[in-house]
C-alpha cells in the first residue's frame, strides 16, 4: 500500500491485478490518454471486444495491474498498466549457439489519473509489477510507449 496526497487529502492506494470491475475502470482511465480519435465508449469496446480476444492477449497473456483507492478499490482506479507475456527468440551473438525460445514481458499503457500525477504512483506501480516476475526469470522486458504522439 502507498499513501499519496491527492486533491482531497491523503489517499491510500492498494496494488493488485485488476478484477473484472477494475478492468473496466482501467480501460476508462486509459481512454483519457489513448482513445483519440475514438470516444471513450468506443475505446472501451475496442479493448474489451476486440483486443482482448486476439491470440496474443487471450487468457493470461494480457494482464492488467492497478493502484486502486483503498477506501473503495472496486470504484476508483488511480493508476494502471498492462503486461504482455511473449515468447521471443534470443541468441547471444558471441556464444555461437543457436537462438533459443525465452519468455519476455512487455509493459504498456502506463497511465496515472491526471489529478494524481507527479506523486510517484507510476514508479510504485511499475516496481510492484516488476516484483510479480518473482526471481526475474524473464529474458527481457520492454516498455511500449507513445510519448510524443
What does this structure look like?
The protein has three helices and six strands. The two termini are 32 Å apart. The chain is an alpha+beta fold and 149 residues long. The longest helix has 15 residues. 25% of the residues lie in helices and 36% in strands. The protein has one domain: 3-Layer(aba) Sandwich (Aminopeptidase). InterPro entries: Acyl_CoA_acyltransferase, LAT.
What is the name of the CATH topology? Aminopeptidase
Report the sheet with the most strands, covering strand number, pairing sense and barrel closure: 6 strands, mixed
* CATH architecture title: 3-Layer(aba) Sandwich
Principal-axis shape equals globular
pLDDT < 50 stretches: none
Q: What's the CATH C level?
A: Alpha Beta
H/E series, N to C?
EEHHEEEHE
Distance between the termini: 32 Å
Question: Level of helix content?
Answer: 10-25%
- Specify the number of helices: 3
Mean pLDDT: 81
Total number of beta strands: 6
Q: State Rg.
A: 17 Å
Amino acid at each position: 500500500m502507498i499513501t499519496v496526497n491527492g486533491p482531497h487529502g491523503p489517499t491510500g492506494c492498494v496494488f493488485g491485478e485488476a478484477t473484472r470491475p477494475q478492468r473496466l475502470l482501467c480501460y476508462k482511465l486509459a481512454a483519457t490518454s489513448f482513445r483519440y480519435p475514438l470516444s471513450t465508449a468506443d475505446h472501451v469496446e475496442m479493448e474489451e471486444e476486440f483486443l482482448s480476444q486476439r491470440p496474443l492477449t487471450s487468457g493470461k497473456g494480457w494482464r492488467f495491474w492497478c493502484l486502486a483507492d483503498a477506501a473503495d478499490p472496486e470504484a476508483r482506479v488511480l493508476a494502471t498498466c498492462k503486461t504482455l507475456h511473449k515468447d521471443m527468440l534470443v541468441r547471444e551473438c558471441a556464444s555461437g549457439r543457436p537462438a533459443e525460445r525465452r519468455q519476455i514481458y512487455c509493459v504498456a499503457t502506463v497511465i496515472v489519473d491526471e489529478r494524481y500525477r507527479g506523486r510517484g504512483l507510476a514508479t510504485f506501480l511499475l516496481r510492484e509489477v516488476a516484483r510479480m516476475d518473482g526471481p526475474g526469470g524473464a529474458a527481457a522486458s520492454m516498455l511500449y510507449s507513445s510519448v510524443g504522439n
